[in-house]
């Protein structure tokens, strides 16, 4: 009887071990399939670009991570388009057209005012070159309001005038386009200060 009981206990133990092994195999297999499936799905979602016939993974970052830099870049770019002008009518029109894509009606209003006062025609007739140097841009991420500080240099054949330039406005998010790649529109643009700081007469030899 003891022999039979020992055999039955060993058989039960062997059965229990087999069941445990089977359950373990099933769990390990399921985890392996799940991991492999996730890896395949993740790999299918990757976009590869070729660089010299070498596949590279194209990564995507959150737009909001770099949004503030895009806001400031748009303000800076607009001012360069609007204020950096040579005595070339065609080039001025191209620059101002680019600037108008970045601003609302407040930009068109200032452009029309300058045009009516003969600002652009005077630049051309006097062979003046206008350049703008940015000092700083103060930007409030909460209100999306900004203030631009810079110095405007107007170089004429006879003299060089340096003017301070302070403008302000707000920003609005819009869909990105070819002409407005950052998807930022300047609104309520105002010129706070634009006065002469110095006026130097050129020496004529």
Taking strands numbered 1, 2, ... along the chain, how are they ordered across the largest sheet?
A: 3-4-5-6
What string, H for helix and E for strand, traces the elements in order? HEEHHHHEEEE
Number of helical regions:
5
Regarding quaternary structure, what we see is: single chain
Which structural class best describes the helix and strand composition? Answer: alpha+beta
- Can you identify the CATH class of the largest domain? Alpha Beta
Largest sheet: 4 strands, antiparallel
The count of domains is 2
The average pLDDT is 84
DSSP strand content: 25-35%
The CATH homologous superfamily name of the largest domain equals VirB8 protein
Shape: rod-shaped
Proportion of residues in helical segments: 40-55%
């Amino acid at each position: 009887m003891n022999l039979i009981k020992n055999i039955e206990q060993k058989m039960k133990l062997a059965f229990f071990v087999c069941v445990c092994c089977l359950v373990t195999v099933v769990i390990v297999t399921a985890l392996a399939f799940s991991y492999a499936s996730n890896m395949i799905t993740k790999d299918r979602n990757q976009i590869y670009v070729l660089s010299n016939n070498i596949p590279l993974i194209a990564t995507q970052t959150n737009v909001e991570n770099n949004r503030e830099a895009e806001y400031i870049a748009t303000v800076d770019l607009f001012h360069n388009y609007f204020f950096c002008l040579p005595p070339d009518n065609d080039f001025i029109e191209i620059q101002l057209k680019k600037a108008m894509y970045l601003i609302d009606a407040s930009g068109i209003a200032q452009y029309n005012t300058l045009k009516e006062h003969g600002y652009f025609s005077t630049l051309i007739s006097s062979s003046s070159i206008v350049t703008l140097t940015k000092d700083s841009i103060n930007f409030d991420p909460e209100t999306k309001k900004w203030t631009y500080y810079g110095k405007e240099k107007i170089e004429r054949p006879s003299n060089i005038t340096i003017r301070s330039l302070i403008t302000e406005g707000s920003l609005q998010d819009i869909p990105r386009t070819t002409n407005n790649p950052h998807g930022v529109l300047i609104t309520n643009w105002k010129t706070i200060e634009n006065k002469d700081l110095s006026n130097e007469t050129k020496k004529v030899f």
